[in-house]
Amino acid sequence: MTQTAPASADAETHPPRFTHREIMVTMSGLVIAMLLAMLDNMIVAPALPTIVGDLGGLNHLAWVTTGYILASTAATPIWGKLGDLLGRRITFVSSIAIFLLGSVLCGMSQNMGELIGFRALQGLGAGGLMVGVMSVLADIVPPRDRSKYQGVMMAVMPVAMIGGPLAGGFITDHLNWRWAFYVNLPLGIVALLVCWIVLAKLPRRSAGQVRIDWTGAALLTVWITTLVLITSWGGTEYDWASPVIIGLAVVTVVAFAAFVLVERHVAEPIMPLSVFTDGNFNLAGALSLVVGFAMFGGVTLLPQFQQYVQGSSATNSGLLLMPMMIASMVLSLAGGTVISKTGRYRALPIAGSVLITVGLALFATMDTGTSRFMTGVYMVVLGAGMGCLMQTTMLIAQNSAPLKDMGAATGAATFLRNMGGSLGVSVLGALYTSTLTDSFTSAGGAAGAGNAGGAVAQMTPEALRNLPEAVQHAFAQAVSDGVGIAFAWGAGVAVIGIVLALFIRHVPLRGFGGAPGADKAPVEVTAAEHAR
């Protein structure tokens, strides 16, 4: 295998075996890149209330996260396919560079419009980080053995999940929220250098062989963007029956239909429709979308409740997320060990879906009297569900796809999860903001809040503590109402995930160079089929 010669057809379907040492050396770069991606969300979350208050725009709160996730979602399948065409090294390193550029510009933002735009650029790079990590791992380790190495990958989680919120809170309380973005630079530079070196042995194709589906990429971006705009603006910025929303709906349908037609006929589609012919891939992808909607949409709001209702500082609100993060890490590591030893995985998505639904339902019961201890208990339940699903759904999706389309399949699976997250943050964020504003406005007169509706957009935790006690109570109740509604809707959507998980079949995990018919191995009858 050389870097200058294109990979042969045999190499694409039966990649060369890597020794354990070679895999671990390659994974050192992947771990750093994953840490970079995980740290960003963990650091920014505790700073969001202060960022929004400083730049003045609660109505655009969801878009600080949605813009990032939307760009990441649209870019994910594109990065995955480019990795198949150009090779993992150049695409992976390019995504890191774009992520770092976006981080610098986010830290320089002077208003919410700039911040949202630069977060989108940052998300464009982030779309290549996670899909790149999972695609490279799929290139060098067969599904049957992958859980062992995923366990090593998960060792980075304590640093990101515990250190990230603490760093974000400390930066917000003691430095300036802008450093929540600048802090990406040192780690990012290290990731660039390490990945450029350790990924050099992966194969790549010459530029002359590459045919990029730019039309499909453009149509994909259009229908994703318009769909998220509908869920963000419908019922808030514009009436559901307004010409703007109807027009966006028409554009979404037309662009999606055109996207499907293009993908059916181009030589190298951005998102090969063939991967959707496998039932397990579809179920794993749909489960990722549903769980992403419920989980990302809900978790984004937790720091709001902790800081405005429970009176936590930004640092402490990050620290208080630890029960969820640790539970997620423990269950993910335990699940990976079980899969590696037994090859069985079907129970994990079922258990994870149930736990996430229960966790979100518990969060929906929170009010101004909910203690931090009980909030921590709810987080353990939700985190355990996340741990059961985090790696398992991706493993199922990758095991259902041919090796030659591994990057595209990984990108498609990640795309569905991120799409769910984008819609979840958008929809649940809009529900939260609308309920919060209505509740606080209705209580404004009695509480002496004056222009209650206008005060909401400029409210920060620090500013709230300087207001009269009656106003503090009214705002805390409004935040509690908004969070409760959002989590209740998230739990309702998560129930769909339980149904989807019941239909997943157990297909034996394959190895590289296995029998040609390995993918057609006997499968277990699902609980749903047995019920019929």
What does this structure look like?
This protein is mostly helical. It is built from 23 helices and no strands. The chain has helices at 9-13, 20-55, 61-86, 88-107, 112-140, 143-154, 157-174, 179-182, 184-198, 214-233, 243-265, 279-299, 302-308, 314-319, 322-342, 347-363, 372-390, 392-399, 406-447, 452-458, 461-465, 469-502, 527-531. Helix 6 (143-154) packs antiparallel against helix 15 (322-342), helix 12 (279-299) runs antiparallel to helix 18 (392-399) and helix 16 (347-363) runs antiparallel to helix 22 (469-502).
Task: Give keywords.
532 residues, mainly alpha, 75% helix, 0% strand, globular, disordered N terminus
Give the quaternary arrangement of the chains.
Answer: single chain
Strand content: under 5%
Rg (CA only): 23 Å
Please outline the major beta sheet.
none
What is the overall shape?
Answer: globular
Q: Write down how many β-strands occur, each being a DSSP E stretch of 2 or more residues.
A: 0
Summarize the structure.
Helices cover 75% and strands 0% of the residues.
Helices, strands, pairings?
Blueprint: H1 9-13, H2 20-55, H3 61-86, H4 88-107, H5 112-140, H6 143-154, H7 157-174, H8 179-182, H9 184-198, H10 214-233, H11 243-265, H12 279-299, H13 302-308, H14 314-319, H15 322-342, H16 347-363, H17 372-390, H18 392-399, H19 406-447, H20 452-458, H21 461-465, H22 469-502, H23 527-531
Helix pairs in contact: 2-5, 2-7, 2-9, 3-4, 3-5, 3-10, 3-19, 4-5, 4-9, 5-19, 6-15, 7-15, 10-11, 10-19, 12-16, 12-18, 12-19, 12-22, 13-22, 15-17, 16-17, 16-22, 18-19, 19-22
